[in-house]
């Protein structure tokens, strides 16, 4: 599907978790611009409603207020999408939180919350969506991991562990769901200018990234969305169980 493909009552449907803002919102925009109907699922109701209202496309954009950590809210959210659009073709597990602290300053509650949001959330959303994707004849899932899931670094004991586990979940799902026509891949973004980055990227972290990234800058949400869209598209029809670093060369530079 090319940019500006019109949306119709039979257009494919993409769910993006954490879709109220940042990378998730850009991914939603990418799908809408290419003829998908989109459901943006998020815990932050106010931002979600504002973002969905800005699209001004009630025929094609649905706000789903849900917490990906809660199986009942996830199931209810997916039921809402099916009631409105009748099908689910693509799922982007993007909702995530970050705590950047040394191990001895990371509380167990913080560790669990990062794991539950970033890992369990993807598991729960996948379980809820897969039956609908099978009914639709197959589909694609992309998990938004991180370069912090590819290599260890200070302050990321919770975040990096959650993203490494999400990468392994990606492989497990790819192996299990291939025979029902569902491809599962992950992207590993480098630093991206969003609210999350504002929250956890100190001046020192920013300076380290600028030095370590061959392209010498942060990525944009749109650059992440372009890659996710490609992985979900028929152009990527034989790509399954892969991790793609979208990081300006950070990982390659070692
Ligand atoms: P943002 O914090 O800007 O947006 C994330 C959205 O997810 C927020 O609206 C947030 O709501 C929502 N969310 C958080 N917890 C839940 C939950 N339990 N259920 C539903 N929604 C939830 O983050 P980014 O756009 O920067 O990040 C998106 C993804 O990309 C994350 O998985 C992140 O780890 C990953 N990533 C980001 C990088 C970056 O530099 N920005 C780098 C590498 C990976 P609320 O604000 O209320 O918590």
UniProtKB/TrEMBL annotation:
It comes from the Bacteria. It holds the Pfam family adh_short_C2. InterPro entries: NAD(P)-bd_dom_sf, Sc_DH/Rdtase_CS, SDR_fam. Gene3D superfamilies: NAD(P)-binding Rossmann-like Domain. One of its GO terms (biological process) is fatty acid elongation. Coiled coil: none annotated. One of its GO terms (molecular function) is oxidoreductase activity, acting on the CH-OH group of donors, NAD or NADP as acceptor. Belongs to the short-chain dehydrogenases/reductases (SDR) family. This is SDR family oxidoreductase. It comes from Scleromatobacter humisilvae.
